[in-house]
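Re: the 360-residue chain
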Amino acid sequence: MNDVINPFQITHPTAIQTSLLASALFSKFDPSGRWIAAGKQNGSVVIWDLDTKAPVRVLDGHVRGVTSVDWSRYGRYVLTSSKDWNVIVWDLAERLAGSSTRGGGAGGGGGGLQRMKTVRFDSSVMSASFHPRNSKIILVLLSTGELFITDLRREYRGRVELCDTLFQRELREREREREKLEEGEEGEGGGGGGGRQTPSSVPPPTSTSREAKRSPITVARFDISGRYVFAGTANGMLLVFNTRTKAMVGRHRVAGAGTMKSLDFTRNGRRLVTNSSDRTLRQFTIPNYQQTSSSSHTNNNTNSSSNSTPMLATATTAPNVNEQELEPTHRFNDPINKTAWHVMAYSPDGEWLAGGGSFV
């Protein structure tokens, strides 16, 4: 029988060892743990070397505050997003080898070579992340709640919006019912000669499009394998999309969650934790979407014969969606102080979950 681990005997740092004066909004380690990218309010991103505790590169490409930073799988590329509506992919292969020259703009000592690709969207970008296994595929979330997969490969270049296809289907069905009801009452009024439509006889437009607004997506991430995209919405829904087919394969309601704020996965990809506006961390066991994905892929191939370039995921591409309500295996909250969690992370083995908050 295994002994119970005593958390008070685990060695851990008890003091801050080093501070980097970066004036940053946030930061992120590269996969090797040697470099750290720090995003700033002035639109620049500083790359720090943790061995020398010195900045080795400054990426000047945005004109407004940086909203997210991500590293590619092997640390060669950096992905930055900003409130200036742009997403930039930076190639750091040559500079991080040993040069500490400032650059990144057009005149910054080879900065033009560093900025590999700039993608512009229609509103400010909340977050952008690389695919875990392919740095040519990026996931972009806009401040309007729209979510896009952007493929930078030459043969597949384009962007596809990921949206709640079941909501679209329900909205279309309700709109058709309303139109039929209006046509029927018009026929009755015309046949009677003196019949007139009363304002109460025809359902107002507010019963469909104006009331049934799509809930915006507030957070999105690739899973560990990169096969699926998990997205949380403002009304406590968890949407799951197949990365390859762009079809929705899961639509789960999380009871009492409220607005989704962040997501994280264990390294083996079997568990998921959500942080929501009700100040509770919820851990779930991820369902198996293999069967749903294969059905969606078959239907997507059938539809592609009539439309060779489908650029928007629609209800016709995902008829089979897992809609079971997810029941959390654990809930974590602060019942005394009602602390709101700002960040959370799993330990490398997935046995520990850390949550960070602030007392106001």
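The first helix runs from residue 111 to 114.
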